[in-house]
């Protein structure tokens, strides 16, 4: 598909490995004080001075984590960066650098890699992180991308998954489930396209959902907002696999239970409409959809006044004793045990 859409095709073999690296990386600039040396030597050099260094890495494999049939390469580059930065923000840290490693088969022309790097460059700019290195190699089949994100945090400000206590409030940023429904819309359009390639999809009613799937944003702002409000979460995690699954991680690591209230789950109106259209239960998707890249955290009850009314945050539940278990309290006020189903399980239904 990529081949067909790309008007000009320059074979990557023509440039050679060093030519390719030079071509893709020459425009990167260093903006963060902590970057001493970026691309161009055997290794990068960083200096976080008195701060703690935060490191997180992700591996994305074509056909497993992304499908180039409806994921433009520029979006893929952008998303690959964003999902990594999200992990740094989930430690209550500031993201500062990334490395980018790629394995590509020769079916990709140079122009395709330029698109990928345009997305990476845009994300690096948007989130003010320096691209400080990587590796470039060939693959037998398909595209593989690995990104490592680095960040910095004052030691006392680090927030782990394991600090939640009984009676803490459970808070989520943004809204839930939209990325998953965006994927459902795209999957449907792909099938329509396969039957009739001349059919131009009308996606106006789905713009927010598709954007959440194809161009997700990480919550860089949340650690900053929390700091300004003088709130330090007791535990925090980012929502990549789905709310249920992340709640279970927080509870397990913190040795607490939890009650989550169905009526409190923050849902976008477009998300609700499309769930109706697909005849899917919106609560199930909000709980299990995944790829929202919002932050889920717990705060002490006495901090409630500091976040109350802030449009970035919704209190969706509270932590209990571990022995009480992990439950969804439904609109009908019945308690349903939460099970992490994750994204893959949902796909198989
Ligand atoms: P080495 O042989 O030491 O692995 P390379 O020739 O692979 O060095 O890389 C040269 C420089 O370019 C290094 O600074 C490396 O980090 C950087 N680099 C290589 N590939 C990429 C890439 N895909 N994206 C960003 N930087 C890269
Ligand atoms: Mg190398």
Secondary-structure map:
Elements lengths: L1 H4 L6 H14 L9 E3 L7 E2 L5 E10 L11 H17 L4 E11 L5 H17 L3 E9 L5 E10 L15 E5 L4 H18 L11 H8 L6 H8 L6 E4 L4 H12 L1 E6 L7 H10 L3 H7 L6 E5 L4 H4 L5 E9 L4 E4 L5 E3 L4 H6 L2
Parallel strand pairs: 4-5, 9-12
Antiparallel strand pairs: 1-2, 3-6, 4-6, 7-10, 7-11, 8-10, 9-11, 12-13
Helix pairs in contact: 2-4, 3-4, 5-6
Adenosine-5'-diphosphate binds next to helix 2, strand 4 and strand 5.
Detailed description of the structure:
The chain has 349 residues and is an alpha+beta fold. It folds into two domains: 146 residues, PurM-like, N-terminal domain (60s Ribosomal Protein L30, Chain: A, 2-Layer Sandwich); 176 residues, Alpha-Beta Complex (Phosphoribosyl-aminoimidazole Synthetase, Chain A, domain 2). It is built from twelve helices and 13 strands. α4 links the parallel β4 and β5. The longest helix is centred in the middle third of the chain and has 18 residues. The C terminus is likely disordered. It binds adenosine-5'-diphosphate (ADP) and magnesium ion. The site of adenosine-5'-diphosphate (ADP) has 14 residues, from α2, β4 and β5. Adenosine-5'-diphosphate binds next to α2, β4 and β5.
Count of helix runs:
12
Bound molecules: adenosine-5'-diphosphate, magnesium ion
> Which strand order spans the largest sheet, edge to edge or round the barrel?
8-10-7-11-9-12-13
CATH architect. name of the largest domain? Alpha-Beta Complex
Q: State the CATH class of the largest domain.
A: Alpha Beta
Globally, the shape reads globular
CATH T-level topology of the largest domain: Phosphoribosyl-aminoimidazole Synthetase, Chain A, domain 2
